[in-house]
Amino acid sequence: MKFRYLGNSGLKISEITYGNWLTHGSQVENDQAVRCVRAALDAGITTFDTADVYANTAAETVLGNALASERRESVEIFTKVYFPTGPGGPNDTGLSRKHILESIEGSLRRLRTDHVDLYQAHRFDYETPLEETMQAFADVVRQGKALYIGVSEWTAEQLKEGHALAKDLGVQLISNQPQYSMLWRVIEDQVVPMSEALGISQIVWSPVAQGILTGKYKAGGKLPEGSRATDEKGGADMIKRFLEPKTLRAVQKLKPIAEGLDLTMAQLAVAWVLQNPNVASAIIGASRPEQVTDNAQASGVTLDQDTLAAIDKALGKIPETDPSLTKSPARRLT
């Protein structure tokens, strides 16, 4: 496992992050989830990402229990705040001072730790003054409950404004967590250049495009049993945009490229996002331990320019590149 610095900081994280969105506490039984975490640790992964909203806080509990026997200093634990949790009351969502300061307490309790390494704004909150949000995050850092702060799915301009406020408050905003894959490249035009200028890294989610880039979905074929596309708890909604026949046919053209490099298609997809120097880590999820072991082998893989060009040729105009698709919900969900 290789490691990279996260943003303009001294924090090193594993190139592969294990994330438990759509799995722990919902799609995957607890015992299996723990086995996935053990597989991640065995593969050399030290960085783990979750959020309070995942399975309405249950995912944090599962991760906390799975990591309880580990030396705290040997792992990096990330979580997030913004989306509704609990009963969904008027202050159970957003990035207000009240919600942030109350949410960090709940996350720490469920994760069984006295601090997280990175506390992230899960989306941008248009209804709370950014100054209030960043002051609350700064207070969380000063209280020792988070070491660094990050965000998720913020636009280039939002990153610029948030970074400036954080700097004025004496804290480090070092990361952004966007969706990024061969099929979803919307951060490349604006978010990545701004991040590079500010010293912010990307921790990218869905590098395998919800499983589409594994090649297991075939145009006109039956959806694989037990796959994310058949998961009615949320997975099916997320993956449906990639199930267009033309997309699936293009993805099949990647198979000979992967085989020529002695990689699985999933490994090729994860390695592809890691070729972007602004990407510090790729988040992988799994419902089975062997998926973790397989995907983790993408760390350290170098794809030459000919390979990258062949990937672009295979996919043609299929990848989404519109930077306006980096956005947060217009209003809080309640």
TrEMBL record:
SUPFAM superfamilies: NAD(P)-linked oxidoreductase (SSF51430). GO terms for molecular function: oxidoreductase activity. The keyword NADP applies. InterPro entries: K_chnl_volt-dep_bsu_KCNAB-rel (IPR005399), NAD(P)_OxRdtase_dom_sf (IPR036812), NADP_OxRdtase_dom (IPR023210). Transmembrane segments: none annotated. Residues 15-314 form the NADP-dependent oxidoreductase domain. Keywords: NADP, Oxidoreductase. One of its GO terms (cellular component) is cytosol. Belongs to the shaker potassium channel beta subunit family. PANTHER family: HYPERKINETIC, ISOFORM M. This is Aldo/keto reductase.
